[in-house]
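In response to reviewer comment 3 from the previous cycle, which asked for concrete evidence that the modeling workflow produces usable outputs, we include below a single protein chain processed end to end. The sequence was submitted unchanged, and the resulting C-alpha cells are shown without manual editing.
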Amino acid sequence: MTLLAIGVLLWAGVHLFPSLMPGARSSLMGRLGEGPYKGLFALDLVIAILLMVFGWRSATAEFWYAPPLAGTPYLTTALVLIAFVLMGAANAPTNIKRLLRHPMLTGIVVWGAAHLLANGDNRSVVLFGGLSIWAVVAIVTISRRDGEWTKPDPVPVQKDIVLIIIGALLTAVVAYFHEYLSGVPIIGL
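The workflow returned the following C-alpha cells.
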C-alpha cells in the first residue's frame, strides 16, 4: 500500500508543481532548459505510474465500506464513458470546452468517483480518491494561476459526436480488457 500511496503523491506533486510554484518551475526550466525539464517531468510521471501499478498489485485489498454502485456495472461504465469523453475533450476542438474550463481534470474526478462508487476497498480509496483529490486541487490552482477564463469559439456539433463515439469505443475496449489491464474483473459485464 505504501508504494501505491507514494505513486499517487508523486503524480500529484509533479503535476501540481507548475501551478503551485510557477516561479520555481520557471527557475528550474531556466537552469535545465525546456527539453531536459520536460524529460525530468516525464520521468517522474513514469516512476509515479510504475509505483501506482506495482503498489496496487502488491497491496492486499481490505474493504472499508459498502460501495453504493457495487453490482451495477452499467451505471459505473456510463460514468467512465462520460469521464473518457471529458478527458478527450481537453485535446480536441469540442463544445465541451465551452462548458468546462478543465474537461480533462473534471473527467478524472468523474472517473475516480465512478470507481469509488463501485469499489469500497483500501486500494481504490487511495488510488481513485487520491487522483480525484489531486484533480480538484489542480482545477483550483490552475484556475487561480491562469486568471480569468476565455471560452473558446463554438465548433460544429459533429466534432462532439465524433468525440462521443471515440469515447464509447474506448470505454468498450477498456471494459473488455479491464481484468487484464488492472487485475480486477468488472463484475456483472
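The CA atoms of residues 1 and 59 lie 5 Å apart. We consider this sufficient to address the reviewer's concern, and the full set will be provided in the supplementary archive.
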